[in-house]
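Review form for a predicted model. The reviewer records the input and the model, then writes brief findings.
Reviewer: anonymous (R2)
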Amino acid sequence: MHSGKWRIKPSGKLPVFLRYVINSSFTKGNAKINKIKRLLENRVYLHHMMYWKATEYNPFETEIIGHLKKNDGWFEGYVKRELADSEFLYKKGLELKKTDWTKQATGFIKKTLDDLLEKYRIICCAWYVQYPLDEYFESTIEEYLLKYINADDRDFRKYVLIFSDPKNMTEVAQERWRLTKLAKEFFRKKENLNKPSLSAKNKILDHLDKFAYINRGLATSKPYSFQDIVKRLKELKTQILKGESIDNLIYQVSEQKVKDDYKWALKRIKPKPDFLKIIKQARKHSYMRNRRVEAFFNADYGANFMYQEIARRAKFNPNWIMDVSVPEMYDALDGKKLPNLKEMKARQHNYAMVVRKAQTSLITDPKEIKKLEKEYSVKVDDTKIIYGVMACLGGIIRGRAKICLDKHEIRKVKSGDILVAQYTTPDFVPAMEKAVAIVADQGGLSSHAAIVSRELGVPCVIATKNGTRIIHDNDLLEIDARKGIVKILERS
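Model under review:
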């Protein structure tokens, strides 16, 4: 999004600790590891929006897209590194989860934290690359398609979506697929979900052992609980009682469905080698960026057990430990006092971050935040029609809007509502399963909202830019899920 001298991106709520890590990641050293020349060392995070100077961001964007246009091998190296780092983080999460932190020396905890944050920063530095790549692949696939079919072909958008699907099944998709298969088994055996048998309980616990981390997000919620899974199984049962086929639900979220769609599209379009290479790159990128999110989530879930022990030793509220900054986390390990109640309440209510030369400052003083507001702001037009990009096709849909800026707010979403978010992450899936449509401020065709909405078959409009600022809770919306148009029919 452009606004005067700024490049702006919606950036949802994150706890202070992780926002601090991400904002401190774009250093010369990390950029060199990721083979990036143009630096993004300066930015401001304010009111869930990230601001970059256009004079910094535009050359960075040009550099990244330039690699794709020159076909110089940079992209392949980038994907390979990110997947390797992602697998390292995912396994690290499993290791951290199994560690008994109460028995570890403070020096060991500090060394573990050092190593983890170093890997976090390297992978977060490269994270920014995904935004120009998303735009490049979407526009390039559309340009190539126009050489094969007309823009008004009824399946034009469908081909774009299929050609940007992940090349492999994501773990979020696996979780939904396995849950649906579990539902089929339980319904066939007529399991009483209010009092499940020992066998059913063990299968749910096995499911939780592998997938509980998904619901936690980046320290924005609790991992899936036993009751969470039971509730979702009951919701699947309700769908079946309304006439939905369980086998169709399983197929719609299966890897086979993605493969079948891809074969169908290739057969119809018959792309030449140059176009096919772009398609394969887009699918690799889509899988990599979603796998990276899963890995980050799992690592953070495992690390949470370490953070809880740090809080215990510091005699600090464990529910607040993720709202301390990185330097403050190390202070706690050195026996220094953490922020008092007043300060913690202030930063949980609202905070800003200013990054200069990759050095991050946390700001919680309302007066200082007011000063930032004078320079950093987003103009929001008073309109009742919003335009976006279709990520999952459908028809005309009506429903009440539920604005969800973070995981804590998704409980508002009931069956038949329209989920409106800046973007979605794996912990939003329970709300996405209930929604009749999804509207997101940001996201390309390989974003979480785009991929999961297609897996769930829930119509989704992405890249509305200011949807969460224009739409209000409980507004009556009408979504044209063929053209990406969101209309506000009635204000709440």
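Findings: The chain is about 50% helix and 15% strand.
Further findings: The chain has three domains: 2-135+283-375, 171-252, 385-490.
Recommendation: see findings above.
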